[in-house]
Amino acid sequence: MQLLSATTRRQNLNALQQERFDVLVIGGGVTGAGVALEAAVRGYRVALVEKADFAGGTSSKSTKLVHGGIRYLPNFDFPLVHESLVERGLLLHNAPFLVQPLAFVLPLYRGDRHPVGIPFTTPGGVGLSAVLDVGLTLYDLMAGRYGIARHRRLSRQEVLRYAPDLVSASLKGGFLYYDAQTNDARLTMTLIRTAARYGAVIANYCEVVGLQLAQGRVCGACVRDVLEGDEITVQARHVVNAAGVFAERVEALCGLRPQVGIEPSKGVHLIFSREDLHVGEAAIVLPETEDRRILFVVPWQSRVIVGTTDTGSGDLDHPLPDASDISYLLRHLNRYLSLRLTREQIISSYAGYRPLFKPREQGGSDTARLSRTHAVLENEAGLVTIVGGKLTTYRRMAQDTVDRLDERDGRQPRHPTLHLRLAGSEDWSLARPELKRQAAAAGLADDIIAHLLQGYGTETGKILELVADEPTLAQRLVADLPYIRAEVVYACRYEMAMTPADVLARRTSLILEDRQRGLQALEMVASLMAREHGWSSDQVQRLKEAYRQEVERQLAAEETRLSA
Prior knowledge:
Helices cover 38% and strands 21% of the residues. By secondary structure, it is an alpha/beta fold. The protein folds into 3 domains: 6-59 and 185-263 and 357-418, 3-Layer(bba) Sandwich (FAD/NAD(P)-binding domain); 84-181 and 265-354, D-Amino Acid Oxidase, Chain A, domain 2 (2-Layer Sandwich), CATH 3.30.9; 428-559, Alpha-glycerophosphate oxidase, cap domain (Helicase, Ruva Protein, domain 3, Orthogonal Bundle). Helix 2 packs parallel to helix 6, helix 12 crosses helix 13 (485-494) and helix 16 (519-533) runs antiparallel to helix 17. The chain is globular. The model is unreliable at 361-370 (pLDDT under 50).
């Protein structure tokens, strides 16, 4: 198994300075990780740097769905839907432990005029059900051999059996269709680990502060080690800008006329307990809002995710929901559910920015109308930038980006990641029963076993080895959630976790799922990490305080929203 420890990171920093690479990828979100993997598998010598932690931005702030996007059908964005459905199918095959099918209930009510954003209506809404049936049939057909299961109509009684807390008055019936679900941060980390297996030299907390040019062409980057403060120069024949919402900032380092146009769109989500918001194993689609969006109510382990919004930008480095975002989501929840949910029942909320590609000649600022398609751009200095897209299509985005590099090198493009199993997926169907048996024999509870298998796949075996060597590592970090101490040690040795926030916010999701945002686990996490990394007591205190301050900043913002 590929080590990605603090020691590995130091070794990688030395390699970044001493070697000349074929490809330097800037950005460690899902897109950058995908590009690094694609290029490494094609035989390029690859480096990847990320200014903060892997998946630290948008790639850990999604609705946790791998989907074709039924809301793009009314916009006739058929190429994007088809591309997304194919990529959904590939992910179900290439990362079966991490991406699972998920049923969606789409209820229909009398009085709805634009369900799932249909741009037209009919008198009294008559016939809209037939229109949706046609649209979902098209959705199934576009998936082709990558489909999960065909959609079907539901009677009023069937809808309420799937989603008993829906308002029953005016409910006419509905549909059941299928997409998939994932853990976005763990998907990104899995891509990082897989790229490292293929030789990519990777480092987090390395910020690009300048681009190197020779004869007017980009040939590398000046990189600052955020943790130590040192600066190094990384040389590469190709430089790929996969910085997401920060892509414009990276391109500006060239000092040339900009090619990249990013329109950040904030997506806000709320997290509830299943005791407060009752859902089964199917997600619920809230079919209509005043701005013709659709909202999802998605089961996620012991919690429920509700989202998302599509609003303008703010602080890109520290995105937070505001009072209007929270009110918007609660208003529509309480419109369609018989419950009366309040702000006090929200366990946590989070926001992330979609890096929507906006042609520079396009005016206006309606982010909801911008396509989620992606574009590969190249400026006069030869900087290749990948912009736009969505979580589901990361692999296709990476493929198109490296195709551009192959074209520059005069190589015939090949697409090995189409059927490349990601780390943790090897012989999964055979390994899963045995890993489940071993975990049960180690005394782990059913929810912990399910969490480990879905998060780590065959690499669960490494976590079980840690538990066998040190049984106290089987203990939970938080009493009502399935995360255990061994995951902290694993994150330090194999996932380049460098701070408590890396573990609490991305290697696990405690900052989102825990009512105390991981603060009750902070002492134990810091202690285990200090043992792995050899931190001094001063370092431990400084890192714990940094995490507390981040949580307090979020909680203070929430208090402001609650009183608004």
